[in-house]
Amino acid sequence: MGRRRTMRLLALSAAVLVSPALAPAAQAARGLGFDLDTATIPELQARMERGSLSSVRLTGEYLNRIRAIDPKLHAVLTISPTVLAEALASDVRRRTGHSRGDLDGIPVLLKDNIDTRSMPTTAGSRALRTKPAADATLVKRLRTAGAVILGKANLSEWANFRAAKPTSGWSGVGGQTNNPYVLDRNPCGSSAGSAVAVAASLAQVAIGSETDGSVVCPAGMTATVGHKPSLGLVSRTGVVPISAEQDTAGPMARNVVDVAVTLSALQGRDPADPATSKYPAGQPADYASLLRADSLRGARIGLWRLPVLGPDVDAVMTETARVLTARGAQVVPVELPYQARLGELEFPALLTEFHRDIDKYLATRTNVPRDLAGLIAYNRADPLEQTCFAGQELFEQALAAPGPGDPGYLAMRAELTDLAKRSIDEVVARYRLDAIAAPTNPPAWKTNCATGDNDVIPSSTPAAVAGYPAVTVPAGFVGELPVGVSFMAGQWQDARVLAVAAAYERAADARRPPRYLSSIG
């Protein structure tokens, strides 16, 4: 179900919606009595408890904004056919004293590589335009928590793992997602639609996924918050894979507290996902309750400046260090070791893992190509799959890569994971750090299908490969373009990085809503 179907559903639901939204979320929410852009889940829940807001009204506001604004962003692929029924059911639960908690009635958008039985799950590819047999485990958890599944978000096709020079935010199904701050700039990938949707207040929360950078980079480029959880904290069952050794889904929102509320609902063991067997028994059940304004006081934060991202980004990091210090943290300059070797090892390992894991996933679907070779053949035969970047070099290289039992591959993956963990663990131990901070992204580059991405984003790799948590928070702007700062720490330290990020977010107050400029410079 593509954009035409989405627009028809929005038109059919118009009778229960409020008047069409204007671009700024504050204008859109005048009738609600609050600024939708800055409202948090706890604030929305308080209003619903008082009876001054309903889930149907909130959901309608988001549907109106999608109808008014998404035509210039292309962030939303599909609206759920049951979205208003789910919102109404939430309101009934609340009135009868059966609310399911902090996420009940909150509209959540899903990246379209997450299985939903009521909507197609495409990974952006025209080859997968069918409905899976079942919801992904994380979708079941969201439904159990009472979340309203708003629809599916556009993404970089195959999570940016098809072509050697892809264009982030483009897919054969949804076209090009645009950065809401400057429309001709790129949103980064591959959770581009998820990030853009929350930045533009088209959803309260979105779920993205990351193998290396695909949550934190688009969040950084759109002045939003994105959390890549520890590997094994959130089930991947029913999520289109790249690599079981690195993939994880994670929440994205306009503030840390909403991310924390959503993570609390997403996390947990899943017998179908072996990585979750290591989920600690003592993991917090409620991350939002652990966010304190004084979490930076007495903390030791390592600052990995990454001057390769340029002097403008480095100036943002200087201001980040000032804010951290002003809130009582001790900032320690650090360099993370082994980065060149990580760069040599990661891509060849992912080729083997993608071939293994995508074949397993395709076996769970019907009326789609049966394996990677079938996907390659499909793309060669479909001219619409070649309208932005034509290549599928990564598919072809993955098809020819060594198998998962190959001794060379096994040695490579073991070294890769070990060095990534050591790159963080050794620095944390040496300097007695609570977390490491690093710039998340450069200023957004111009979107150009002919040349592909201009992405130099080294800060995501250590945590992504190690399976450690990372969360990005808005840190500032280079002109009109947002820059984020990422906080990372050791495995299962998700509560720690969220608390540090929330305290920094409160002190820096760096986010401002998008203005939808057509271009700059």
**Order of helices and strands, N to C?**
HHHHEHEHEEEHEHEEHEHEHHHHEHEEH
Overall number of structural domains: 1
State the secondary-structure class.
alpha/beta
Question: In the CATH hierarchy, what is the architecture at level 2?
Answer: Alpha-Beta Complex
Rg over CA atoms: 21 Å
Mean model confidence by pLDDT: 94
The proportion of strand residues reads 5-15%
**E-strand count:** 13
Helix content: 25-40%
The shape, in one word, is: globular
Largest sheet: 11 strands, mixed
Task: Quote the CATH topology.
Answer: Amidase signature (AS) enzymes
Query: Count of DSSP helices?
Result: 16
Query: Would you identify the regions where 5 or more consecutive residues have pLDDT less than 50?
Result: 1-23
Summarize the structure.
This protein is α/β, with parallel strands linked by helices. It is built from 16 helices and 13 strands.
Keywords:
alpha/beta, Amidase signature (AS) enzymes, 11-stranded mixed β-sheet, 36% helix, 521 residues, 16 helices
